[in-house]
Design a protein that fits this description.
mainly beta, 7-stranded antiparallel beta sheet, 1 helix, 4% helix, 32% strand, globular
Length: 248
């Protein structure tokens, strides 16, 4: 399922961020042609981020059953895979608790059976908050380029050893710019939906966005870069131009 856009992902997304804001402030989302991903549940046909009442709502529609495919467990953190529905945005990471201009802020809905990174949440309801990685859950992540992940590829930005950057209160303790806010995604039929409180996210109203499905991989050495974007399955815009504009 390797995506044809992967070699240029970082450059395209960074260029789009610099040009963000050209879309209609009340757009109807990003429509995409079906058939661009090998697996139907990662084949994007529509992506939208909108403000509905007191929530910022992230939606993605695919041509298959959303969330049906999850990574095959490898039995360890090292070398394990993460599958993700991703909404890259132009929102400054500072708004959700990271340093200003730390990278590309994205909302993600992910599943990864080999580790759990939501220590404050018991997604499967069995009383153990540390065994739920295979249940679809949400993260804010900050993305940035790193040639160590491959030419033009992105990673979740690492926290260097000894550094003490500004982090959200629900940071899960990994040496990454990642947040585990506990927002519960709804996956039903062909749609993934996530509702995020609009309070404290003022920059969302003027933000640009795109929709992406992707596979990430934990470094076999469990060392920086820790979590790379290994495969881009599909991109709603086709070119990571962030054409969507958050609107009512």
């Amino acid at each position: 399922m390797a995506g044809p856009l992967r070699p240029a992902v970082a450059a395209a997304l960074l260029a789009a961020l610099s040009a963000a804001g050209a879309a209609d402030a009340h757009d109807a989302g990003i429509a995409a042609e079906a058939g661009n991903a090998a697996v139907a549940d990662f084949d994007i046909v529509h992506a939208r981020v909108g403000i509905e009442g007191d929530a910022v709502v992230f939606r993605m529609a695919v041509s298959g059953k959303a969330g049906e495919t999850k990574p095959t467990p490898v039995g360890a953190l090292a070398g394990s895979a993460v599958f993700a529905y991703v909404w890259p945005t132009s929102i400054d990471p500072y708004e959700v608790g990271f340093e200003e201009k730390a990278g590309i802020l994205a909302m993600t809905v992910t599943a990864h059976p080999d580790f759990d990174d939501t220590p404050l949440k018991d997604e499967n309801g069995d009383g153990d908050p540390g065994n739920d990685g295979d249940v679809w859950h949400s993260h804010w992540v900050v993305l940035g380029p790193d040639e160590a992940c491959g030419a033009g590829a992105l990673k979740v930005v690492d926290i260097p050893e000894g550094a003490k950057p500004r982090l959200p209160q629900t940071w899960p303790g990994l040496p990454l710019l990642i947040d585990s806010p506990g927002f519960e995604p709804a996956l039903a039929g062909e749609t993934v939906e996530l509702r995020v409180p609009a309070a404290g996210l003022a920059g969302a109203r003027d933000a640009s966005y795109d929709g992406v499905t992707a596979g990430l991989r934990v470094n076999a050495d469990v060392h920086a870069p820790l979590l790379c974007v290994a495969d881009v399955f599909d991109v709603a815009s086709g070119d990571l131009s962030l054409p969507g504009k958050v609107g009512d």
